Amino acid sequence: MASTLPASANGLPTSNIDRAAERALREEIRAAVGRLLGERQLLAPGREDEERIRALIRDRVETYQRRAATTNAPLLVDPEGVEQRLFDGLLRLGILQPLIEAPEVEEIICNGPNRIFVIEDGRKRLLPDLYFDDDEELRQLVKRLIGPLGRRLDESSPMVDARLPDGSRLNAAIPPATIRWCSLTIRKFILRAHSLEHLVQLATLTKSAAQFLDAAVQAGVNILVSGPTGAGKTTVLNALGASIASLDERVITVEEVAELQLERQLPDCVALQARAGNVEGAGEIRIRDLVRNALRMRPTRIVVGEVRGAEALDMLLAMNTGHEGSLTTIHGNSPRDALDRLATLAMMAEERLSGEALTKMVARTIELVLQLRFEPRTGRRRLVSIFEVTGLEGNVVTGQDLWLLDPQRDRLAWTGLQPRCLAKMGSKGVSYALPQVLEEGRRGMMASGEKPSTMWPGNSQVTPS
Fold first, then answer.
1. CATH architecture of 196-448
2. Using one digit for the tens of pLDDT, what is the confidence trace for 66-122?
3. 352 close to 360: Cβ distance less than 8 angstroms
4. Which of 103, 218, 418, 442 is most buried, taking the most CB atoms under 10 A from its CB?
5. What share of the chain is helix, strand, coil (3-state, %, to 5)?
6. What is the spatial distance between Cα 436 and Cα 444, in angstroms, rounded to a whole number?
7. Any residues with CB less than 8 A from the CB of 55 and at least 6 apart, and which?
8. Cis peptide before 13 (omega within 30 of 0)
9. How many helices (H) and strands (E) does the chain have?
10. What is the pTM of this model?
């Protein structure tokens, strides 16, 4: 994909003359703005303050141009670009601001001041014409961004993870945590779909799979969404949650960084968000604390953006104590990996339950695992498997693949196995046209020439009822 990122305010490349002028003007303007507003007001300026700063920058740049003209010094090639970069350097993200505003950019990576990468539609590329003057400029940018959030970055605290006001995730590290340079990663959250229908339009899944998942969510099936980083787990979770449309449902969402938009879509939904401790280490709100608090808010369902630690146990307990149809995501390369990791994370809890007990709890609690995959070659995020947990054999969770990616047709195909959760759909009065789905599945299996997979894991035979 060809990039449309601007190199400057009017699309002109940034010249060495302009960069030298910026260095000369930057400190002068910073000192003037500090006298004009004061450091505290500069951290959270209002609209009028921003207009005053723009006017001050414009005046200083015009003065520079007049002085250069009278002394036969080189004029600025792009004065508007210089003005915008000076403003962004004071109140925005500096030279990274155009990248944040570009809708096609998903992630920004700075490996020191001279190596800046962007990820667009899943593909990473280097921006050779974009760079900071030195490592200190990059480090000061990070400190300015995290200052209003009550975070710090110094030798005693060389790593920081924060959420920017626009919802982007910021992670930074400096020596001694890194070998040499300041490292900065900003991951923008781009919610590409608000419903299962949108996912069908994006070719993430097929229409028949979307109909099944919609019915499963309405029937209160517990679903675990699995996949690697950047596979679209949160987007799928948001689309699944949008199927909970009943006024009788009270949904509580729990996230480390607020990304889900269910609070805007559902009639009765409360969004809870974790918070890191401040400079003194006080004020931390853990995911586990939020899950426990959510249980006291009379929810019918709990949606956890992602389980990464001991909160996995609280999520399993919530699903087992009357909160059917709860949803969450986890990092995993396959359904089995996801289920194994869920049990392992639950073992991190202070309760110290045995692995056998937790494996049994996972097998009895999780009903469907949705496996996502990102394809770097095409840039597509796809659902490649809908896996149904069927029970426990020994200490191994067993299950069956209801949908699998058909490599010949390059689409998600029904395997022909009847899902056990149909009984739950019937008991909840959820209408679901199974015969049509089975017919589509038979056609798919005939076209692919493959038999449905009934083995998972390796030596565990699963016979559908």
1. 3-Layer(aba) Sandwich (3.40)
2. 888 888 888 888 888 888 888 888 888 888 999 998 888 989 999 999 999 999 877
3. no
4. 218
5. 40, 20, 40
6. 12
7. none
8. no
9. 16, 15
10. 0.77
